[in-house]
Amino acid sequence: MARLPRLTLADQPHHIVQRGNNRETIFVDSADHEMMLGLLGENAVRHGVAIHAYVQMENHLHLLATPSTAEALPQWIQAVGRRYVRYFNDRHARTGTLWEGRYKSTLIQPERYLLACMVYMDLNPVRAGLVAEARDYPWSSYGHYAGLRHDKLLTPHPLYWALGNTPFAREAAYAELVRAGISEGDQVLLTDGVLRGWAVGDRQFLESLQRTTERRVRKARPGRPRNPSGSTP
C-alpha cells in the first residue's frame, strides 16, 4: 500500500517521531542529547516553529510543535536531521544513514489531545522501564512544566497556561496530570496516529479537517463502501 503524504498545517500542533535506522542508537551520551536540543532550538527559530514538548530516548525522539507555515515543519526537521547526522557520524566515527526513513507526524486536536500527548511523551521513559517517575528522566520537557528547571527551548501552549493562574498552580496541575497518566485508549490512539499519519481528534475536528484537504485524515471504516442507492456495489 502506498504511504500517505504527510499532512501539515500552519498554526496546528503536530506530534512528530523520528527513529534511528533499524532502531539503532541515536543518542550515545549527554553530549549527543545536548547537540540535538541545540539544533532543534536554533532551527525552530530560523523556520518559525514553536516547540511545546519533547522526549529524547536512546533510539528515537518525540516532538510536539506548531509550525507557523505548512512548509516550516518539514524544513525544520530536515535541517536538524541533516546537521545531526553529520555531527553524529563525525563524532562516533561512523558512516551512512542514521534515520529510519522519513520522520512520522500527525496533527493533534489541541483542546482534546494536546495535554494528553504531552503526558504520553513524558511517560515514555517510564513505560520503557528507564525510570520510575517522569521527573527522574533528564531528556524530556517534563522538568520545565513541573517547575524543576527552565528550558528556553520550549514555547508553552496556551492550554498549559490555562492550567492555573500562577506558575506554581500550573506546575502542580501538570505534575498531577502526569501522575494520573492517560487511558489505554488514548495511548493507542496517539501511537497509531503518529505512526500511521492519521489525525488525532474527535469526529467534529476530523470532519472539519477533512474539508481542508483531499488527503484522508483518518482510517477508513471497515467494509465496502455503499453506493447512493444504499446497496453494496
TrEMBL record:
<dbReference type="Pfam" id="PF01797">
    <property type="entry name" value="Y1_Tnp"/>
</dbReference>
<protein>
    <submittedName>
        <fullName>Transposase</fullName>
    </submittedName>
</protein>
<feature type="domain" description="Transposase IS200-like">
    <location>
        <begin position="9"/>
        <end position="124"/>
    </location>
</feature>
<feature type="region of interest" description="Disordered">
    <location>
        <begin position="211"/>
        <end position="233"/>
    </location>
</feature>
<dbReference type="InterPro" id="IPR036515">
    <property type="entry name" value="Transposase_17_sf"/>
</dbReference>
<dbReference type="InterPro" id="IPR002686">
    <property type="entry name" value="Transposase_17"/>
</dbReference>
